[in-house]
Design a protein that fits this description.
The chain is mainly α and 370 residues long. It has 10 helices and 8 strands. The protein has 2 domains: 65 residues, no CATH class; 219 residues, no CATH class.
């Protein structure tokens, strides 16, 4: 026992050991989920497991285990599937697909869930592929509430739960009262985003116009990033690692930037004053392309960083099952914990960078010409 305590002290004390165990418990659902493939297949498919975890789905997986009779029990929360096809609206729960084994009729066609996507098929449920193994079946207009959409709704509820009580207290007691409760969380965040990000990039007399949008963007990305790091219900959704998510946020910044752009901003893009005509012929196309490369960089940076972190953690855990030996587990788990802690930092960093660059692009468009 004395030797054990001595080792804990050498590792940084009991507090470090408790934190280490807590993070191990957080990663355990991911490891158990990865290990499920070993029961079904002789060879563990790490790529399929990773793509399954970082992809979207039509249900929240809560728990999966094998009972005493060897039967696999899966507990999950089905989500609403909303399909529009040939003038017909079909609404049902994803459990109707039974994991892709059942077809759901819609008019003269049928719906089938295949690799977490809904396709139209015939009564036989056939999925056709071309030579490159791409699916040829048509897809209906899909308005479903997937796991990523549900996670975004949850993040909106969290934001409302934090900000509404704080706003009510401010309206009753004013801004000079010492922060209390939700205010103690909200006030430092608002002041940091407003003073150190927005007003640092946008002229002070114009910054407050964009503060609500940029503050919402910061908190929305941050909360979704943190929810994505929680490997059990109601977390686990990789919303920020979905290209549609980052594309939409970048599109909002793009639209707001160009709608708010001053005459000097557009003059610098299409006239480039103070340069000879031959140089203008070169610079104007570059400046015009730059209007689109800025939001593209916003979209790709957030998507790539969040997705890469999830893939690295899952890849390190997969080493145990690929090599099929317990001796690599300590190294694999230790490296996974290090990357997991780094991902927690990246969650804040990417929200900060996205908001900072959005403020910078807006500032370039609206600031007074000097």
């Amino acid at each position: 026992m004395m030797i054990f305590d001595r080792c804990i002290k050498l590792a940084g004390g009991k507090r470090f050991f408790k934190h280490f165990l807590a993070i191990c418990c957080l990663l355990m659902p991911v490891a158990l989920s990865a290990g499920e493939n070993l029961e079904e297949e002789s060879e563990f498919d790490a790529a399929a497991m990773i793509m399954h975890h970082i992809g979207d789905s039509y249900e929240y997986s809560i728990l999966s285990f094998t009972n005493g009779r060897g039967e696999k029990i899966k507990v999950s929360l089905p989500l609403p599937v909303i399909i529009w096809h040939k003038g017909q609206l079909k609404v049902f729960m994803s459990s109707s697909f039974k994991g892709g084994d059942e077809l759901v009729p819609i008019g003269d066609d049928y719906l089938r869930l295949y690799h977490e996507k809904v396709y139209l098929t015939d009564a036989s449920g056939a999925i056709n592929h071309d030579e490159s193994q791409s699916v040829l079946n048509a897809q209906p207009i899909n308005l479903s509430i997937t796991k990523n959409v549900a996670s975004m709704m949850l993040s909106c509820l969290i934001m409302l739960a934090i900000f509404i009580p704080a706003a009510r207290r401010y309206s009753r007691k004013g801004a000079l009262v010492a922060p209390k409760g939700a205010q103690s969380i909200v006030e430092p965040i608002v002041l940091f985003v407003r003073d150190d990000i927005i007003r640092a990039q946008i002229d002070k007399d114009k910054a407050d116009r964009f503060t609500p949008f940029l503050l919402t963007i910061f908190l929305f990305i941050l909360i979704n990033n943190i929810l994505g790091l929680i490997p059990f219900f109601p977390g686990g959704a990789n919303a920020s690692g979905n290209i549609s998510f980052t594309l939409t946020l970048a599109a909002f910044t793009f639209i707001l930037t160009n709608i708010s752009g001053s005459k000097h901003y557009w003059k610098d893009v299409f006239v480039v004053p103070g340069t000879p005509l031959p140089i203008k012929l070169l610079l104007v196309p570059i400046e015009f392309i730059g209007l689109f490369t800025k939001p593209f960089a916003l979209m790709l940076r957030l998507f790539a960083n969040i997705t890469a972190g999830h893939i690295i953690v899952l890849s390190l855990i997969s080493i145990i099952f690929v090599m099929k030996t317990i001796f690599v587990a300590p190294v694999s788990v230790f490296l996974s914990i290090m990357i997991y802690c780094l991902e927690f930092l990246v969650s804040f960093l990417q929200a900060y960078i996205f908001t900072l660059l959005s403020s910078l692009f807006i500032g370039l468009a609206v600031n007074e010409h000097h």
